[in-house]
Specification:
homodimer, four-stranded antiparallel beta sheet, globular, EC 2.7.2.4 (chains A, B), ATP binding (chains A, B), 406 residues, aspartate kinase activity (chains A, B), Carbamate kinase, amino-acid biosynthesis (chains A, B), transferase (chains A, B), alpha/beta, 13 helices
Amino acid sequence: MARLVLKFGGTSVGDIDRIRNVAERVKREVDAGHEVAVVVSAMAGETDRLDSLVRRVAPLHDAREYDSVVASGEQVTAGLTALALQEIGVSARSWLGWQIPLRTNDAHSAARIQKIETELLGARLTQGQVAVCAGFQGIGPDNRITTLGRGGSDTSAVALAAAIGADRCDIYTDVDGVYTADPRIVTQARKLDKITYEEMLELASLGAKVLQTRSVEMAMKHRVRVQVRSSFSDLPGTLVVDEDEIVEQQVVSGVTYSRNEAKITLRRVEDQPGIAANVFGVLADNHVNVDMIVQNISEDGRATDLTFTVLRPDLDKAVRVLEAVKGEVGYDALVSDSNVVKVSIVGVGMRSYAGVAKTMFSALAEKNINIQVISTSEIKISVLIAGEYTELALRALHTAFDLDAG
Amino acid sequence: MARLVLKFGGTSVGDIDRIRNVAERVKREVDAGHEVAVVVSAMAGETDRLDSLVRRVAPLHDAREYDSVVASGEQVTAGLTALALQEIGVSARSWLGWQIPLRTNDAHSAARIQKIETELLGARLTQGQVAVCAGFQGIGPDNRITTLGRGGSDTSAVALAAAIGADRCDIYTDVDGVYTADPRIVTQARKLDKITYEEMLELASLGAKVLQTRSVEMAMKHRVRVQVRSSFSDLPGTLVVDEDEIVEQQVVSGVTYSRNEAKITLRRVEDQPGIAANVFGVLADNHVNVDMIVQNISEDGRATDLTFTVLRPDLDKAVRVLEAVKGEVGYDALVSDSNVVKVSIVGVGMRSYAGVAKTMFSALAEKNINIQVISTSEIKISVLIAGEYTELALRALHTAFDLDAG
């Protein structure tokens, strides 16, 4: 007997037949003797529909009202899923965020979970009743509905798993696991049986859309075993676990990319202390996050070129902000480029292997791919390259690090 | 300065433009210095959509889950209406049933309101904030969402008006008031300026669809002044008030009809004590309500014919139930007829005027309309006639009681 949390995303509960399919899957776990809590998202498209209603009424809206409106999507699927379970003879009830209660702070639309009170819900689980929880939502200190931000249902599921001491949290989605690369681009990509929290966190942050970053952070913090698997097949998925559990660690576990980057270069910035702080300070003040940074000495050695990346949706704002302080900062010209992609390799094995960067850069050089900016962490190396080389780079790196399916 | 409750039905909040229109109306009352609570239904069609989702998943469903799913419709409009108010500079927030809290018993899908705690909401009203309440929903003793049954938002509004001591409860709908008859049938029908609770209650029970019966009962019990008016025009509506407030009372205030009746006749029932109790007892056991009843002595004087009406949707069940006890009850034949209509005249003035029944029956006789069953109360007379005479009967009665416009 184990205690499990099963989370189903919007496509998995996208219509009545799929909700019935979810119920069948849950029933199998119940029949196997497990205690099961289910977390559901809104039906695919429903959050967008509700979001659009709100934006049409009030482009700049009160986040408290927004949360109350959009949280209704998960309320509907939670009820329908509980009913579908009852229909096939499984004892079940729905739980809304305020009923559990799942308490959050008051940062409406991007709330952080503070405490999940599991006394009521846990007692029902012990009695063998399936708890179908509305994902994405909680209750704030002001007794109003909060939401956790897009993709928040993953976080709901992992947090619930931690709170009820679940043996595993299965995230059912429309892919059957975590791959060494996007299989739509790299046909040789392989599904990973296991991946470490750290790697998953880097992959999620770097653009892989399998799990929400915050949910992985939470899983890592509370050591929740997470499995990513498909709601449309019975294949085992990918287990996200502690490093100790992975015996044979590859040097590199995956190759990923993000097109959501844009590059800004400030030409001939005066080379004096405090200038960089000035540039990045004004961007931070305007809520523009800067990711990769590189500084080159200019040809005459009297000034530097400062290059960095921002998220693509922030590019226009960043340019506007920097042009407004041109005189103050002191640079010759601002050049922006949104035709760039960030390609990354990720692997905890990097820590103990030398030469990973060399292998990466050589593989790219062999294909005549110019590296514009580099950034690294303990377990990843990211490079910024021109957008048209994306596929070529991913395939070259996948082969160079022996990830191709055999 | 007055305290007002304004209730808007599904067509009044049917799309974004209409919700904006509602906000403008509310703003006018706020600008006039009033404290305003608003009660909203779900957008037109939304409750049906949610109802159908539930029924597709589970034809015989757990009413607790049903309530949680369908209550989401009002949750959405409450949020959107609060946002629309904020957009035009009116301080507003939404209140869900559990947030107020509006406490009900545990009769899910047909819950009765037990107590509305107005401390929090009342404090906000006093501060000048509009309270936008989700209609139709409450919270049960088990901390789960309950709903009040179809049309329940009228009841929510009247109950809230009673609880906060509102000076008036305006029910905005798609008609501009209560008419002496259905204007689609009787072109001479006039809008009433005022009507008594008792009359409105009879009209609601007898098929007029302007207000939900329970909301009128509640208004009468708590003496809440209710106004029925149109959300699409600025004309004053009909005020539902105490009898004392109506100086010049008509003998008859309105003529109404219901096609939702069916007639059953049991021929040659043995004329002995207890038989009627037997017949109506078995129907009651099977949850079939009987409305009008008439008993005739048969020609030979040794048996009686028993005729009564049931709601049309219950006809098949009633026939099945009665055929099963044919031997026990002892009758010769069962004849059913669903081609009937109940036509009623309503007016508190009847109490003090003799001859009302005579006027009614003569008017019908003049048009050669045969009366099949009669039932009366202190302030109404209903007759059952063949369906094809509906329009003729309504027009004749409207004229006979001096209700025609002009």
